């Protein structure tokens, strides 16, 4: 893969823009593992975010029904179109040249298999969670992300890495880290190691909508190590709300105000969000 990648870069006179997360996977073993974990079938319609030159796109398209290959860089998209023109003509790949964050994800997408750009990974993850994990036909997402980010994404309450992005994932689903991916598996190599993750929906009833929940996590995780009572008291000073009434209502929901934020479960965060919404605060 590395030899072919360097040939394509030279042929099309392209220099990778690392500021835009252009670090290309060149390990065939990791690519095969990524495809295996996705458990693809001939019925799957797959979304590949940041398709690049299409190495992963090609491997997925061999097993899936259709791959939407989304790439914002027209130079890279031109190479993908040249490399995989036969699969595009066969209807196995649909190339979409656009910014994924502005893209309306097709309704038939059932899986995500992707090596998305790291520099905008949180907005990408949130968009995938919000727009795909709520669909009945959606099954799973398999991605390679920065190792440190993966640890935060898959952290659980009480873990020192429990954060907003982990809480957002738990609102919609669950996941696991499959394996580490050393930086040498990319070219040019990034400054950090990566991890292959698998995420899947867990559908349940919610007390509040995701927007309300997410705004609440923004309030709480400004100081994850502090006591919930102190974090809320400090924040409520900047509102017109009756602090005592808000805290009392949260306590009535069964939430321990003397618990540190990083120990709060998604269910407890929802209860807090419900009270803040009832008081017109989020």
Would you summarize the structure shown here?
The protein is built from 12 helices and 9 strands. The chain is an alpha/beta fold and 282 residues long.
Radius of gyration: 21 Å
Q: How many DSSP-defined strands? A: 9
The shape, in one word, is: elongated
CATH class of the largest domain reads Alpha Beta
Sheet with most strands: 7 strands, mixed
What is the CA-CA span between the terminal residues? 49 Å
Task: Annotate the secondary structure layout.
Elements: H1 2-11, E1 24-25, H2 28-37, E2 45-49, H3 55-61, E3 66-71, H4 74-83, H5 85-89, E4 93-97, E5 111-114, H6 121-132, E6 140-146, H7 147-153, H8 164-172, E7 173-181, E8 186-187, E9 194-201, H9 210-220, H10 228-236, H11 243-252, H12 266-278
Parallel strand pairs: 2-3, 2-5, 3-4, 5-6
Antiparallel strand pairs: 1-8, 6-9, 7-9
Helix pairs in contact: 6-8, 8-9, 9-12
Question: What does this molecule look like?
Answer:
The chain is of the alpha/beta class. It folds into two domains: 200 residues, Vaccinia Virus protein VP39 (Rossmann fold, 3-Layer(aba) Sandwich); 69 residues, Helicase, Ruva Protein, domain 3 (Orthogonal Bundle). Helix content is 40%, strand content 17%. It is built from twelve helices and nine strands. Strands 4-3-2-5-6-9-7 form a seven-stranded mixed beta sheet. It has a two-stranded antiparallel sheet with strand order 1-8. The chain starts with a helix and ends with a helix.
């Amino acid at each position: 893969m590395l030899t072919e990648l360097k040939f394509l870069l030279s042929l099309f006179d392209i220099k990778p823009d690392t500021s835009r997360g252009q670090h290309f996977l060149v390990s065939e073993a990791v690519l095969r593992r990524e495809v295996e974990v996705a458990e693809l079938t001939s019925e799957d319609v797959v979304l590949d975010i940041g398709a690049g030159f299409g190495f992963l796109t090609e491997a997925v398209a061999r097993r899936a029904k259709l791959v939407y290959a989304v790439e914002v860089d027209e130079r890279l998209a031109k190479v993908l179109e040249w490399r995989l023109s036969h699969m595009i003509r066969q209807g196995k790949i649909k190339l979409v040249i656009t910014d994924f964050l502005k893209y309306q994800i097709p309704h038939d997408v059932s899986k995500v298999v992707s090596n998305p750009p790291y520099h905008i990974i949180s907005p990408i993850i949130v968009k995938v969670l919000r727009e795909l994990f709520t669909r009945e036909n959606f099954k799973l997402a398999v991605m390679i992300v920065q190792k440190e980010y993966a640890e935060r994404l898959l952290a659980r309450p009480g873990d020192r890495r429990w954060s907003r992005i982990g809480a957002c994932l738990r609102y919609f689903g669950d996941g696991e880290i499959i394996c580490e991916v050393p930086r040498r598996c990319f070219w040019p190599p990034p400054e950090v190691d990566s991890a292959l993750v698998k995420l899947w929906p867990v559908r349940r009833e919610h007390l509040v909508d995701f927007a309300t929940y997410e705004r609440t996590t923004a309030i709480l995780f400004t100081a994850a190590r502090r006591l919930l009572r102190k974090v809320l008291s400090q924040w409520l000073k900047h509102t017109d709300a009756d602090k005592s009434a808000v805290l009392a209502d949260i306590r009535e929901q069964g939430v321990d105000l003397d618990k540190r934020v990083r120990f709060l479960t998604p269910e407890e965060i929802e209860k807090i969000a419900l009270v803040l919404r009832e008081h017109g605060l989020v």
